[in-house]
Amino acid sequence: MTQPNSAFRHHRAMVIDDSRIDRFVADRIIKRSFFAEEVVLMESAIEALSYLQALENTDDLPEVIFLDIRMPVMDGFGFLESYNALPETVKRNCIIAMISSSADVNDHLRARSNQYVSCFMEKPLDKEKLDQYFLESTSSQS
What we know:
By secondary structure, this protein is of the alpha/beta class. It is built from 6 helices and 5 strands, in the order E-H-E-H-E-H-H-E-H-E-H. The chain has helices at residues 20-32, 45-54, 76-83, 88-93, 105-113, 127-141, and strands at residues 10-16, 36-42, 64-68, 95-100, 117-122.
């Protein structure tokens, strides 16, 4: 995969959220905290799956996908079911972080038990959460 600009931790991140405001906030936080140089914003899980399926080069994949749970038509869990059918190159190169404002304990448990979900983050995203979930996970892998 393409190496990010040295100031950024990742080259590309994707935010999948039906809320225009939440996408805007996530985009600003991700860029301002130097988490990712480029942010791909998707309004729906279906749109995001189409985008991922159409990519022919792993360099174009987002390294991190921030996935909202509650969305119309296909929710975050529906995305994960369909994500399972994507090529292994996609699944090996993307980290999924579920994001939600849901207080439902079952959502939290279900997200954490999914093999593709690396972490569960409460909305709104902020620099502290990005540091907590992503710096800790990368330092523990070293």
